[in-house]
Prior knowledge:
Structural class: alpha+beta
Number of helices: 6
Order of helices and strands: HHEEHHHEEHEE
CATH superfamily of the largest domain: Trafficking protein particle complex subunit 3
Strand content: 15-25%
Number of domains: 2
CATH class of the largest domain: Alpha Beta
Amino acid sequence: MEKKAGKRTTVIFDEQDRQYLEQLIREGKEPGIKPFISKMFDVYRDMAMSDWKFPGEYYVGMSRVAFFSQENLQHLIELIPETKLRETGRKLGEITAVSIEASQNFDTHKKENWAKALARLGVFGYGELLMRENSLIAKNPFISNITFLSGFLEGVLGVTLKARITTSPIVFDISK
């Protein structure tokens, strides 16, 4: 089988951008220009950046997004009564599921779509979320409160979760 060569494209960088990219390469943060450009295309596609309005108004599908610190989210979660944490997380997860379905055109509650839904949450910055048989693994999750996180993921996937390991990587057992 013959491998087709990609088309060659010339990219002209401003001097400041070129210096910045060369610095990233020198520091070992980027392996080279071609991998850097490829990664930027992946980010552009995954984040649906073609839908973004500039400056300061960003949409992913139908949802407007903002850069929000983990510390701010933690403070908001601390204001929720302990008895309402899971329920509130679940409601937020259900809203997120609707947003994903509208923008990505798949139902996050269907088991065959769980991996895609978790990958989408990864793109949104929620952490590395993986399926393993009847378990869900959350590596370095954005939401640090286990009860709220459980509810959130339950709302997204339409399941019930029980935390088996409560330190990162967190492991949840899944039941429908």
